[in-house]
Write a structure and sequence with these properties.
about 725 residues; alpha+beta; Beta-lactamase; 6-stranded antiparallel β-sheet; 25 helices; about 40% helix; elongated
Length: about 725
């Protein structure tokens, strides 16, 4: 083949290869281009599948487990904890501190959802840092503690048969636990060491508290060293903290203690019988509250406003955040109407006169006396004193015990002290009028002993009947109130069937036989005789049938003294904002105003006649109290009382069905007799037996009024 042809062939061949190569490249590009939409489709399909799975999963969670997750979310909650603050103080009318708060170191534990094991470990660490006496640990506590300390040994006390019964659900966890507790031997309990018992004492305090509420672990005799070392190791003691607690102090010691009342301890907490009441008022179960008398009556004022802390917890109950809501503010202060120096002086007088009386014959049962001093125009109680003699069980010696509470919680027959109310009731009912005269000859009702005065007093009007304390004059008045017809040694009948109610209602308008309204709990109204035989109506009007308290007598004589207004007695004078740490009182928030409960609805002339009679009793020869009050510069007026009664005191059980007969002594008074500024009531129950009248009521009354006016003069 010619060279030219060969060259053309090679050229064509090369060209062909080039074309073939180009065709292959173009084919390859076409193939590559055709794969792109496929991959995009695959990507979109995959995303679709994934979203479908996600939607299905979300639907599954929402439908199947939605309620559970909702509950989990709800478990995250805000829990408000209220921390108590110091109580308000109490002052007397002269701004003297009566009840105060004394700060003291304390160690607390707050359960933030810890398990038993965690609390036990913390208790073991704390036991190495403080001293805690196991004096409150019981046998029951020891058994539970032993199981907690020795779980394997406790499990071994359950037999195989009992385990099978448990598996068959014939025994419960509670049943097994009880079996373990019962089978712990005395030797095993005795093996608990002193240190373990101390741990148990601490653990008991830990477990007795409530979640998120601080529980007092130790607040008595906490040393500075204990506070320092516990504070240093707080990081290793979860839930434990050091703080400042307080306790009530009484600068006047036992004076008026029974009236001031008490508060619960941190161990007692809120009284079980009033739990619901306090819980609805944001109290914690372990809060210290007033449990008696003034502390209880004014709890809501004395308790203050608690510090509020919000604990935010997660679904497991763990605290994840703490947020303060409001600062605490200690309780408001109370200023009392009482003058504590006067109260102390009256207490001392009663003690001295009771001891002196016990040295006289016929005083086997004499063991107590009561005095109330009241402003007749405002009802403010200046002093309310009660003393009771008790024997010390160890020494056998007689000791004086404060019983100021008895001035309104115990009642007695008081005798002639009520005759002022009898005369005024006679006026109101029309039974007598000013100047009505009666002969003092004894009253004899058929088949009953003669009823008479202590001596024949001749013909008397109502003024001299009060002066000389005629019983017969009061009997005659009662017969007229009952619309009865009296003949010597004949039956006595009343056509007025409401005579008892008439007299009692009238007496109640003075404060006798009814609640006085004093701002303290548990006031007693007294016993009302049940029989309505005519003879008992005669006993009623001379104070020998129904019973009355010293507080009732004070209200009664104040009503006469002030012109006929029954004033509500009260012991709290002012409510003040909390003191800021200094002794000076804070501003007044509220004053307790005088309260008129009712008027006795009598004419001025009638009341004037009773005033004259009361003045004659103490200032005129022949008056039943004249010998003791003659020469008194403060010109007193009043009425004495002696009542035959049956002993019903602490020795009553020694005398079977026939209790001994005793004499109660009383005295009501006000001074000065014109424009009076003080009213007084004295009761000495079971003052003597037989005819050994020791006049202890008059001795006490004279010294008390002397002391009041001397102290008043000294303060001017």
């Amino acid at each position: 083949m010619p060279l030219k042809d060969v060259a053309e062939v090679e050229l064509n061949s090369t060209t062909l290869r080039i074309h073939v190569k180009e065709v292959k490249q173009m084919d390859k590009q076409d193939k590559k281009t055709s794969h792109i939409p496929f991959r995009l489709n695959m990507l979109f399909f995959s995303v679709f599948i994934l979203f479908s799975i996600l939607i299905l999963r979300l639907g599954f969670i929402q439908i199947v487990h939605g309620e559970n997750f909702k509950k989990d979310l709800e478990r995250k909650e805000d829990i408000t904890v209220r921390y108590p603050v110091p109580r308000g103080k109490l002052f007397d009318r002269q701004d003297r501190v009566i009840v105060d708060n004394v700060p003291k170191s304390a160690i607390t534990f707050t359960n933030q959802g810890f398990s038993q094991t965690e609390m036990l470990k913390t208790a073991e660490r704390l036991a190495n840092l403080i001293e805690k006496k196991p004096d409150k640990v019981t046998d029951h506590d020891k058994r539970h503690f032993w199981i907690l300390k020795h779980p394997k040994l406790a499990d071994a006390k359950i037999t195989k048969q009992e385990k099978n019964l448990y598996t068959a659900k014939k025994l419960t966890d509670k049943d097994l636990y009880k079996l373990k507790v019962d089978r712990i031997t005395a030797a095993e309990l005795k093996a608990l060491t002193k240190k373990e018992l101390e741990v148990l004492a601490i653990y008991k305090e830990f477990s007795s508290g409530y979640k998120f509420i601080p529980q007092m672990v130790k607040n008595k005799n906490v040393s500075a060293k204990e506070v320092a070392v516990v504070s240093e190791y707080l990081q290793s003691l979860p839930g434990v903290d050091t703080t400042t607690d307080w306790e009530r102090s009484y600068p006047f010691r036992s004076t008026l203690r029974s009236v001031l009342g008490n508060i619960t301890s941190s161990e007692e907490g809120v009284p079980a019988e009033r739990l619901e009441f306090f819980l609805t008022r944001d109290y914690n179960r372990n809060d210290r509250v007033g449990k008696s008398q003034l502390e209880s009556q004014y709890e809501e004022i004395l308790c203050g406003h608690k510090e509020k802390i919000k604990n935010i917890t997660d679904k497991t109950g763990n605290v994840i955040e703490t947020e303060p809501i409001s600062n605490g503010k200690k309780g408001k202060d109370l200023v009392l109407t009482i003058d504590m120096e006067l109260q102390k002086a009256v207490d001392k007088i009663i003690e001295q006169e009771l001891r002196a009386a016990k040295r006289l014959p016929g005083t086997t049962f004499t063991d107590r006396a009561y005095v109330v001093l009241m402003d007749p125009y405002t009802g403010e109680i200046m002093a309310m004193s009660g003393k009771k003699m008790v024997r010390n069980s160890k020494t056998g010696k007689r000791e004086m015990q404060d019983d100021a509470l008895g001035t309104f919680t115990s009642t007695y027959s008081v005798g002639s002290a009520v005759k002022g109310a009898t005369i005024l009731t006679g006026y109101k009912t029309g039974a007598i009028s000013p100047g009505t005269m009666f002969d003092d000859a004894g009253i004899k009702i058929k088949d009953t002993p003669i009823k008479k005065s202590y001596a024949y007093l001749g013909r008397l009007n109502e003024v001299n009947a009060l002066k000389k304390s005629s019983n017969v004059y009061m009997f005659r008045t009662a017969i007229r109130i009952g619309k009865g017809h009296y003949e010597y040694d004949k039956p006595l009948h009343f056509s007025n069937k409401m005579a008892f109610e008439t007299i009692r209602n009238s007496f109640a308008s003075f404060g006798l036989g009814t609640r006085t309204g004093i701002d303290l709990p548990n006031e007693q109204t007294g016993f009302k005789g049940q029989s309505k035989l005519p003879g008992y109506l005669l006993d009623l009007v001379i104070g020998q049938y129904d019973t009355y308290s010293a507080m009732q007598l004070a209200q009664y004589v104040s009503t006469i003294a002030n012109g006929g207004y029954r004033m509500r007695p009260h012991i709290v004078k002012e409510i003040r904002s909390p003191t800021d740490g200094c002794k000076k009182l804070s501003p007044i928030l509220k004053e307790i105003p005088p309260t008129v409960l009712n008027t006795i609805d009598v004419e001025d002339e009638w009341l004037h006649r009773v005033h004259i009679g009361f003045r004659k009793v103490m200032q005129e020869p022949g008056g039943t109290a004249y010998k003791f009050f003659k020469g008194a510069r403060y010109a007193p007026a009043g009425k004495t009382g002696t009542a035959e009664a049956f002993y019903d005191g602490p020795l009553r059980s020694h005398y079977g069905k026939e209790p001994p007969q005793v004499m109660n002594l009383s005295l009501v008074s006000y001074a000065p007799s014109t424009n009076p500024e003080i009213a007084m009531a004295v009761i000495v129950p079971w003052a003597y037996q037989g005819k050994n009248d020791n006049k202890v009521n008059l001795k006490i009354g004279r010294k008390v009024l002397d002391t009041y006016f001397q102290m008043k003069q000294g303060s001017l």
